[in-house]
Write a structure and sequence with these properties.
This protein is mostly beta strands and about 400 residues long. Helices cover about 0% and strands about 45% of the residues. It has one helix and 36 strands. Strands 9, 10, 11, 12 and 13 form a five-stranded antiparallel sheet that branches. Strands 14, 15, 16, 17 and 18 form a five-stranded antiparallel sheet that branches. Strand 35 and strand 36 form a beta hairpin. It is globular, with a radius of gyration of 24 Å. The N and C termini lie far apart (about 60 Å).
Protein backbone atom coordinates (compact mmCIF):
# COMPACT_ATOMS: atom_id res chain seq x y z
CA UNK A 1 0.00 0.00 0.00
CA UNK A 2 1.13 3.64 -0.49
CA UNK A 3 2.62 5.24 2.60
CA UNK A 4 1.80 8.68 4.08
CA UNK A 5 4.21 10.78 6.13
CA UNK A 6 3.07 11.30 9.76
CA UNK A 7 1.81 14.82 9.03
CA UNK A 8 0.00 13.64 5.89
CA UNK A 9 1.87 16.08 3.62
CA UNK A 10 3.66 13.41 1.55
CA UNK A 11 2.55 10.18 -0.11
CA UNK A 12 5.05 7.58 -1.35
CA UNK A 13 4.35 4.76 -3.81
CA UNK A 14 5.78 1.30 -3.16
CA UNK A 15 6.93 0.61 -6.72
CA UNK A 16 10.27 1.81 -8.04
CA UNK A 17 11.10 4.52 -8.46
CA UNK A 18 9.34 5.54 -5.23
CA UNK A 19 7.35 8.51 -6.46
CA UNK A 20 6.57 11.17 -3.89
CA UNK A 21 3.45 13.34 -3.98
CA UNK A 22 2.70 16.45 -1.96
CA UNK A 23 -0.90 16.22 -0.84
CA UNK A 24 -1.43 19.79 0.41
CA UNK A 25 -4.03 21.52 -1.71
CA UNK A 26 -6.86 20.25 -3.88
CA UNK A 27 -4.48 18.45 -6.33
CA UNK A 28 -1.49 16.31 -5.38
CA UNK A 29 1.79 17.49 -6.89
CA UNK A 30 4.71 15.26 -7.85
CA UNK A 31 7.69 15.85 -5.52
CA UNK A 32 10.34 13.69 -7.17
CA UNK A 33 11.27 10.05 -6.67
CA UNK A 34 13.62 7.90 -4.56
CA UNK A 35 15.57 5.65 -6.95
CA UNK A 36 16.23 1.97 -6.41
CA UNK A 37 19.64 1.55 -4.80
CA UNK A 38 19.93 -2.23 -4.27
CA UNK A 39 19.11 -3.81 -7.58
CA UNK A 40 17.06 -6.97 -7.82
CA UNK A 41 14.98 -6.29 -4.71
CA UNK A 42 11.24 -5.93 -4.91
CA UNK A 43 9.29 -3.07 -3.36
CA UNK A 44 7.70 -5.36 -0.78
CA UNK A 45 11.15 -6.26 0.53
CA UNK A 46 12.26 -2.65 0.97
CA UNK A 47 10.57 -0.95 3.97
CA UNK A 48 10.31 2.81 4.12
CA UNK A 49 9.43 5.36 6.77
CA UNK A 50 9.26 9.13 7.20
CA UNK A 51 10.54 11.41 9.94
CA UNK A 52 7.79 13.04 12.01
CA UNK A 53 8.08 16.33 10.17
CA UNK A 54 8.14 14.65 6.73
CA UNK A 55 11.52 16.20 5.87
CA UNK A 56 13.47 12.93 5.89
CA UNK A 57 12.91 9.35 4.71
CA UNK A 58 14.70 6.12 5.50
CA UNK A 59 14.69 3.11 3.16
CA UNK A 60 15.97 -0.39 3.99
CA UNK A 61 16.26 -3.53 1.88
CA UNK A 62 16.78 -7.25 2.16
CA UNK A 63 20.49 -6.76 1.39
CA UNK A 64 20.85 -5.03 4.75
CA UNK A 65 21.40 -1.54 3.40
CA UNK A 66 19.76 1.44 5.18
CA UNK A 67 19.82 4.79 3.36
CA UNK A 68 18.59 8.22 4.42
CA UNK A 69 17.04 10.84 2.13
CA UNK A 70 16.44 14.59 2.38
CA UNK A 71 12.97 15.41 1.01
CA UNK A 72 13.08 19.21 1.28
CA UNK A 73 14.48 19.91 -2.22
CA UNK A 74 12.84 19.54 -5.63
CA UNK A 75 14.15 15.96 -5.83
CA UNK A 76 15.03 13.58 -2.95
CA UNK A 77 18.73 13.77 -2.12
CA UNK A 78 20.63 10.99 -0.36
CA UNK A 79 22.22 12.32 2.82
CA UNK A 80 25.25 10.01 2.82
CA UNK A 81 25.59 8.50 -0.66
CA UNK A 82 28.03 5.68 -1.33
CA UNK A 83 30.79 6.47 -3.79
CA UNK A 84 31.80 3.99 -6.56
CA UNK A 85 34.70 2.75 -4.42
CA UNK A 86 32.34 1.49 -1.69
CA UNK A 87 31.05 -2.06 -1.52
CA UNK A 88 29.45 -4.39 0.98
CA UNK A 89 30.18 -8.11 0.96
CA UNK A 90 27.74 -10.84 1.92
CA UNK A 91 28.17 -11.49 5.63
CA UNK A 92 26.65 -14.94 6.03
CA UNK A 93 28.37 -16.75 3.17
CA UNK A 94 31.62 -18.55 3.92
CA UNK A 95 32.74 -18.31 0.31
CA UNK A 96 31.82 -14.68 -0.27
CA UNK A 97 35.50 -13.67 -0.37
CA UNK A 98 38.39 -14.97 -2.48
CA UNK A 99 41.81 -13.32 -2.31
CA UNK A 100 44.51 -13.56 -4.95
CA UNK A 101 47.27 -12.73 -2.47
CA UNK A 102 50.03 -12.58 -5.07
CA UNK A 103 48.23 -10.20 -7.45
CA UNK A 104 46.60 -8.21 -4.66
CA UNK A 105 43.07 -8.66 -5.99
CA UNK A 106 39.93 -9.61 -4.12
CA UNK A 107 36.82 -11.25 -5.57
CA UNK A 108 33.93 -10.26 -3.32
CA UNK A 109 30.27 -11.18 -3.40
CA UNK A 110 28.34 -7.92 -3.20
CA UNK A 111 25.56 -7.77 -0.63
CA UNK A 112 24.30 -4.36 -1.72
CA UNK A 113 23.62 -5.46 -5.31
CA UNK A 114 21.32 -8.38 -6.13
CA UNK A 115 20.55 -9.11 -9.76
CA UNK A 116 18.50 -12.28 -9.15
CA UNK A 117 21.74 -14.17 -8.56
CA UNK A 118 25.07 -13.80 -6.78
CA UNK A 119 26.87 -10.64 -7.87
CA UNK A 120 30.67 -10.66 -7.70
CA UNK A 121 33.20 -7.90 -8.25
CA UNK A 122 37.00 -7.85 -8.37
CA UNK A 123 38.84 -5.18 -6.35
CA UNK A 124 42.39 -4.07 -6.93
CA UNK A 125 44.16 -3.75 -3.55
CA UNK A 126 47.67 -2.74 -4.68
CA UNK A 127 46.92 0.98 -4.74
CA UNK A 128 46.59 3.61 -2.03
CA UNK A 129 42.83 3.00 -2.04
CA UNK A 130 41.00 -0.22 -3.09
CA UNK A 131 39.48 0.21 -6.54
CA UNK A 132 37.03 -1.94 -8.54
CA UNK A 133 38.73 -3.74 -11.43
CA UNK A 134 38.57 -2.94 -14.26
CA UNK A 135 35.88 -0.40 -13.29
CA UNK A 136 32.98 0.16 -10.90
CA UNK A 137 30.44 -1.29 -13.35
CA UNK A 138 32.14 -4.63 -14.00
CA UNK A 139 30.12 -7.35 -12.28
CA UNK A 140 29.93 -11.11 -12.57
CA UNK A 141 26.33 -12.24 -12.06
CA UNK A 142 26.03 -15.99 -11.62
CA UNK A 143 24.44 -18.61 -9.41
CA UNK A 144 27.79 -19.38 -7.80
CA UNK A 145 28.34 -21.29 -4.57
CA UNK A 146 32.10 -20.89 -4.18
CA UNK A 147 35.10 -19.43 -5.95
CA UNK A 148 38.90 -19.79 -5.92
CA UNK A 149 41.75 -17.74 -7.36
CA UNK A 150 44.04 -19.06 -10.08
CA UNK A 151 46.94 -17.14 -11.61
CA UNK A 152 46.67 -14.37 -14.19
CA UNK A 153 43.21 -12.96 -13.37
CA UNK A 154 41.60 -16.39 -13.73
CA UNK A 155 39.12 -17.71 -11.18
CA UNK A 156 37.44 -21.03 -10.47
CA UNK A 157 33.69 -20.93 -9.97
CA UNK A 158 31.42 -23.67 -8.68
CA UNK A 159 27.69 -23.30 -9.25
CA UNK A 160 24.75 -25.07 -7.68
CA UNK A 161 23.37 -28.28 -9.13
CA UNK A 162 25.15 -30.28 -11.83
CA UNK A 163 26.78 -27.32 -13.57
CA UNK A 164 30.45 -28.10 -14.43
CA UNK A 165 33.29 -26.41 -12.58
CA UNK A 166 34.31 -23.38 -14.64
CA UNK A 167 37.34 -21.17 -15.16
CA UNK A 168 36.45 -17.50 -15.53
CA UNK A 169 38.86 -14.98 -17.05
CA UNK A 170 38.87 -11.24 -16.41
CA UNK A 171 40.71 -8.67 -18.51
CA UNK A 172 40.62 -4.89 -18.89
CA UNK A 173 37.34 -5.12 -20.81
CA UNK A 174 35.47 -7.32 -18.33
CA UNK A 175 34.56 -10.97 -17.79
CA UNK A 176 35.20 -13.28 -20.73
CA UNK A 177 33.45 -16.51 -21.75
CA UNK A 178 33.89 -19.26 -19.17
CA UNK A 179 35.63 -22.58 -19.79
CA UNK A 180 34.19 -25.80 -18.34
CA UNK A 181 37.02 -27.81 -16.78
CA UNK A 182 35.41 -30.61 -14.75
CA UNK A 183 32.05 -32.27 -14.19
CA UNK A 184 30.58 -33.91 -11.09
CA UNK A 185 33.08 -32.26 -8.73
CA UNK A 186 32.66 -30.11 -5.64
CA UNK A 187 35.23 -27.37 -5.07
CA UNK A 188 36.82 -27.62 -1.62
CA UNK A 189 40.03 -25.58 -1.46
CA UNK A 190 42.65 -24.05 -3.78
CA UNK A 191 46.25 -23.32 -2.82
CA UNK A 192 47.52 -19.76 -2.65
CA UNK A 193 49.45 -20.13 -5.93
CA UNK A 194 46.46 -21.69 -7.70
CA UNK A 195 48.30 -24.87 -8.73
CA UNK A 196 46.54 -27.30 -6.36
CA UNK A 197 42.78 -27.58 -6.01
CA UNK A 198 41.21 -30.22 -3.77
CA UNK A 199 37.78 -31.42 -4.92
CA UNK A 200 35.20 -34.10 -4.28
CA UNK A 201 34.83 -36.10 -7.46
CA UNK A 202 31.39 -37.71 -7.52
CA UNK A 203 30.66 -40.91 -9.39
CA UNK A 204 26.93 -40.67 -10.04
CA UNK A 205 26.75 -44.35 -10.99
CA UNK A 206 28.40 -45.61 -7.81
CA UNK A 207 27.14 -42.82 -5.54
CA UNK A 208 30.67 -42.44 -4.12
CA UNK A 209 33.04 -39.49 -3.87
CA UNK A 210 36.82 -39.52 -4.25
CA UNK A 211 39.04 -36.79 -2.87
CA UNK A 212 41.23 -35.56 -5.73
CA UNK A 213 43.97 -33.02 -6.31
CA UNK A 214 43.93 -31.03 -9.56
CA UNK A 215 45.93 -28.30 -11.22
CA UNK A 216 43.28 -26.17 -12.91
CA UNK A 217 45.79 -23.41 -13.64
CA UNK A 218 47.39 -25.49 -16.40
CA UNK A 219 45.88 -25.85 -19.86
CA UNK A 220 44.44 -28.41 -20.05
CA UNK A 221 43.81 -29.13 -16.33
CA UNK A 222 45.85 -31.97 -14.81
CA UNK A 223 44.61 -34.49 -12.26
CA UNK A 224 47.48 -34.99 -9.80
CA UNK A 225 46.16 -37.64 -7.44
CA UNK A 226 43.14 -39.31 -5.87
CA UNK A 227 42.82 -40.68 -2.33
CA UNK A 228 40.34 -42.64 -0.22
CA UNK A 229 36.85 -41.11 -0.43
CA UNK A 230 36.67 -41.28 3.37
CA UNK A 231 39.62 -38.88 3.72
CA UNK A 232 37.16 -35.99 3.87
CA UNK A 233 33.74 -36.43 5.39
CA UNK A 234 30.79 -34.45 4.17
CA UNK A 235 28.93 -35.49 7.32
CA UNK A 236 30.81 -32.91 9.39
CA UNK A 237 28.93 -30.09 7.65
CA UNK A 238 30.39 -26.84 6.36
CA UNK A 239 33.41 -27.38 8.62
CA UNK A 240 34.54 -30.14 6.27
CA UNK A 241 35.20 -27.54 3.58
CA UNK A 242 36.52 -24.89 5.99
CA UNK A 243 38.92 -27.32 7.68
CA UNK A 244 40.66 -28.25 4.45
CA UNK A 245 43.74 -26.02 4.51
CA UNK A 246 46.78 -26.07 2.18
CA UNK A 247 50.23 -24.75 3.10
CA UNK A 248 51.78 -22.11 0.90
CA UNK A 249 54.32 -24.56 -0.56
CA UNK A 250 51.58 -27.18 -1.22
CA UNK A 251 53.54 -29.78 0.79
CA UNK A 252 50.88 -30.07 3.51
CA UNK A 253 47.12 -30.06 3.73
CA UNK A 254 44.51 -30.99 6.32
CA UNK A 255 41.10 -32.66 6.35
CA UNK A 256 38.54 -33.22 9.10
CA UNK A 257 36.78 -36.50 9.86
CA UNK A 258 34.05 -37.43 12.35
CA UNK A 259 35.01 -39.72 15.18
CA UNK A 260 33.73 -43.25 15.41
CA UNK A 261 31.14 -44.33 17.99
CA UNK A 262 30.97 -40.91 19.63
CA UNK A 263 34.73 -40.33 19.67
CA UNK A 264 36.12 -36.81 19.02
CA UNK A 265 36.59 -35.46 15.53
CA UNK A 266 39.89 -36.26 13.82
CA UNK A 267 42.10 -33.79 12.02
CA UNK A 268 44.20 -35.55 9.38
CA UNK A 269 47.47 -33.87 8.44
CA UNK A 270 48.64 -34.94 4.96
CA UNK A 271 52.18 -34.80 3.58
CA UNK A 272 51.96 -34.00 -0.13
CA UNK A 273 55.47 -34.53 -1.52
CA UNK A 274 55.19 -37.70 -3.58
CA UNK A 275 52.91 -38.97 -6.31
CA UNK A 276 50.19 -39.48 -3.72
CA UNK A 277 49.56 -37.77 -0.33
CA UNK A 278 50.40 -39.70 2.84
CA UNK A 279 48.98 -39.31 6.33
CA UNK A 280 51.57 -37.55 8.49
CA UNK A 281 49.56 -37.19 11.70
CA UNK A 282 46.10 -37.55 13.21
CA UNK A 283 45.05 -35.05 15.88
CA UNK A 284 41.93 -35.30 18.08
CA UNK A 285 39.48 -32.40 17.93
CA UNK A 286 37.09 -32.16 20.89
CA UNK A 287 35.63 -28.84 19.84
CA UNK A 288 32.28 -28.68 18.05
CA UNK A 289 32.71 -28.83 14.28
CA UNK A 290 30.92 -25.51 13.67
CA UNK A 291 33.21 -23.76 16.19
CA UNK A 292 36.43 -25.34 14.98
CA UNK A 293 38.99 -23.09 13.23
CA UNK A 294 42.31 -23.99 11.64
CA UNK A 295 45.18 -22.46 9.64
CA UNK A 296 48.47 -23.71 8.19
CA UNK A 297 51.58 -21.55 8.00
CA UNK A 298 52.87 -20.82 4.47
CA UNK A 299 55.88 -23.11 4.92
CA UNK A 300 53.83 -25.87 6.55
CA UNK A 301 55.88 -25.72 9.75
CA UNK A 302 53.05 -24.64 12.03
CA UNK A 303 49.40 -25.55 12.40
CA UNK A 304 47.12 -23.35 14.49
CA UNK A 305 43.68 -24.58 15.52
CA UNK A 306 41.05 -24.62 18.27
CA UNK A 307 40.87 -28.33 19.15
CA UNK A 308 39.39 -28.04 22.64
CA UNK A 309 37.03 -25.07 22.60
CA UNK A 310 36.40 -21.77 20.84
CA UNK A 311 38.57 -19.71 23.21
CA UNK A 312 41.90 -21.58 23.26
CA UNK A 313 44.27 -21.55 20.24
CA UNK A 314 46.87 -24.32 20.06
CA UNK A 315 49.88 -23.98 17.74
CA UNK A 316 51.48 -27.27 16.65
CA UNK A 317 54.99 -27.62 15.23
CA UNK A 318 54.94 -30.08 12.32
CA UNK A 319 58.66 -29.96 11.48
CA UNK A 320 59.62 -33.07 13.46
CA UNK A 321 58.71 -36.72 13.13
CA UNK A 322 55.66 -36.19 15.32
CA UNK A 323 53.61 -32.99 15.78
CA UNK A 324 54.42 -31.23 19.06
CA UNK A 325 52.77 -28.31 20.79
CA UNK A 326 54.65 -25.05 20.22
CA UNK A 327 52.37 -22.71 22.14
CA UNK A 328 48.92 -22.43 23.61
CA UNK A 329 47.07 -19.23 24.44
CA UNK A 330 43.60 -18.35 25.60
CA UNK A 331 41.67 -15.51 24.12
CA UNK A 332 40.83 -12.64 26.42
CA UNK A 333 37.06 -12.64 27.14
CA UNK A 334 36.94 -9.10 25.73
CA UNK A 335 37.90 -10.44 22.27
CA UNK A 336 35.36 -13.26 22.35
CA UNK A 337 35.37 -16.60 20.56
CA UNK A 338 37.80 -17.33 17.74
CA UNK A 339 36.12 -16.70 14.39
CA UNK A 340 39.06 -16.96 11.99
CA UNK A 341 42.80 -17.67 11.81
CA UNK A 342 45.45 -16.62 9.28
CA UNK A 343 49.25 -16.91 9.36
CA UNK A 344 51.43 -13.99 8.36
CA UNK A 345 53.55 -14.82 5.26
CA UNK A 346 56.68 -15.05 7.43
CA UNK A 347 55.02 -17.80 9.50
CA UNK A 348 56.04 -16.09 12.76
CA UNK A 349 52.78 -14.31 13.49
CA UNK A 350 49.15 -15.33 13.52
CA UNK A 351 46.10 -13.11 12.99
CA UNK A 352 43.14 -14.17 15.13
CA UNK A 353 39.69 -12.82 14.29
CA UNK A 354 37.24 -12.61 17.18
CA UNK A 355 33.75 -11.39 17.94
CA UNK A 356 34.79 -7.74 18.20
CA UNK A 357 38.25 -7.44 16.71
CA UNK A 358 41.56 -8.85 15.48
CA UNK A 359 44.58 -9.86 17.53
CA UNK A 360 48.00 -10.56 15.93
CA UNK A 361 50.10 -12.84 18.12
CA UNK A 362 53.60 -14.26 18.14
CA UNK A 363 53.36 -17.92 17.14
CA UNK A 364 55.95 -19.26 19.60
CA UNK A 365 54.88 -17.29 22.68
CA UNK A 366 51.21 -16.54 22.04
CA UNK A 367 51.80 -12.93 23.11
CA UNK A 368 49.88 -10.20 21.36
CA UNK A 369 51.88 -7.83 19.15
CA UNK A 370 48.95 -5.82 17.77
CA UNK A 371 45.22 -5.40 18.45
CA UNK A 372 42.38 -3.78 16.55
CA UNK A 373 38.72 -3.28 17.39
CA UNK A 374 36.70 -4.26 14.32
CA UNK A 375 33.07 -3.27 13.68
CA UNK A 376 31.77 -6.56 15.03
CA UNK A 377 32.85 -10.15 14.44
CA UNK A 378 35.56 -11.02 11.89
CA UNK A 379 34.57 -14.39 10.34
CA UNK A 380 37.23 -14.21 7.58
CA UNK A 381 40.68 -12.67 7.21
CA UNK A 382 43.71 -13.13 4.95
CA UNK A 383 47.19 -11.66 4.49
CA UNK A 384 48.50 -10.33 1.21
CA UNK A 385 51.81 -11.81 0.08
CA UNK A 386 53.71 -8.63 0.98
CA UNK A 387 52.89 -9.15 4.67
CA UNK A 388 51.93 -5.50 5.05
CA UNK A 389 48.22 -5.81 4.31
CA UNK A 390 45.56 -7.74 6.20
CA UNK A 391 42.09 -8.03 4.68
CA UNK A 392 39.17 -8.58 7.06
CA UNK A 393 35.60 -9.53 6.15
CA UNK A 394 33.42 -8.30 8.98
CA UNK A 395 30.01 -9.42 10.16
CA UNK A 396 28.48 -6.02 9.35
CA UNK A 397 29.24 -6.73 5.65
CA UNK A 398 32.18 -4.35 5.42
CA UNK A 399 35.61 -5.36 4.12
CA UNK A 400 38.66 -3.60 5.58
CA UNK A 401 42.19 -3.50 4.17
CA UNK A 402 44.60 -2.82 7.04
CA UNK A 403 48.11 -1.59 6.20
CA UNK A 404 51.08 -2.17 8.50
CA UNK A 405 53.94 0.24 7.57
CA UNK A 406 56.66 -1.60 9.51
CA UNK A 407 55.03 -4.95 10.14
CA UNK A 408 57.09 -8.06 9.44
CA UNK A 409 60.45 -6.29 9.15
Amino acid sequence: MPKFSPDGSLLATLSYPRNLWRTAGPVAKHAGAIPQTSFGMTAREEPMDFSRDGRRAVVGDIAGMVRFWDLTAMEPKELNPFDPATAFAAASWENAMTLDAKAGRLLAQRADINNMGSTYQVWNLDRSQPQPFPDAKTFLVASTRSTAALSGNRWLAESYGDTPLRVLALDEFGWQASLDVAKNVELIRTSSDGTLTIVFSRDIRKTTATTEGWDFSSRPPVRKWGIDPRSISRDVGSSSRRSVQISGDNRWFTTLLPGENGAPLKLIVWRNIGPKPEVAATLPVRNQDYQYRIALSPDGRYLAHTPDNERVVVVMNLSGKEPREASRFERHPYLGDVQSLAFHPDGKRLAVGGLIGVDVVDVTTGKSVWKWDAPGAVPWLAWADDGRHLITHNANKTVYVLRFPDFGK
